Amino acid sequence: MSRIGKQPISIPGGVKVALADTEISVQGPKGNLKRLLPATVKVEVEADVIRVCPPVNPRETTALQGLTRTLIANMVEGVTKGYQRILEINGVGYRAEMKGKVLNLALGYSHPVEYPLPEGISAEVDPKSNKITLNGIDKELLGATAAKIRSFRAPEPYKGKGIKYAEERILRKAGKTGKK
Predict the structure, then answer these.
(1) How far apart are CA 25 and CA 31, in angstroms?
(2) Domain extents for the chain?
(3) What is the pLDDT of residues 48-106, one digit of tens each?
(4) Any idea which fold 3-80 has?
(5) C-beta of residue 123 within 8 angstroms of C-beta of residue 109
């Protein structure tokens, strides 16, 4: 059985959880999130605790209990605290700026890259340190948005130019050696 799936999720004050068939809705001070749950996993909402019960057929769907519990816990944390992801831009002439809800990136291509941010994600750009700070309540959408922005110019191993996560460490390679 899943050790993570057995742990109850505490509901903080100001958060409302509603369960209808296989859909759970979590509403808090930062917004509200909805998610469809697997039919084989049973979720119980009590006064201040959410419990994910083990699946009916544990042999085939044991992993769904831990996954479902983690997804619900991320929803509860997202509507109370929110999530943040920081991207760093390295390279001569590489920069970013916000124009409304569109992130405009100059990444060494012949054209600027314009990326409209999805609904629920906000961004702040610090032009001095070339950092992009993404904020949102949906952890999955925030991670997908950060990965998409990073994919426009992934960091290369020789000079480290490109877009990388703030906590990411790039393994550097030695360049060519000259003839003597």
Answers:
(1) 11
(2) 3-80, 83-165
(3) 999 998 776 777 677 788 889 999 999 999 999 999 999 999 999 999 999 999 999 99
(4) Outer Surface Protein A; domain 3 (3.90.930)
(5) no
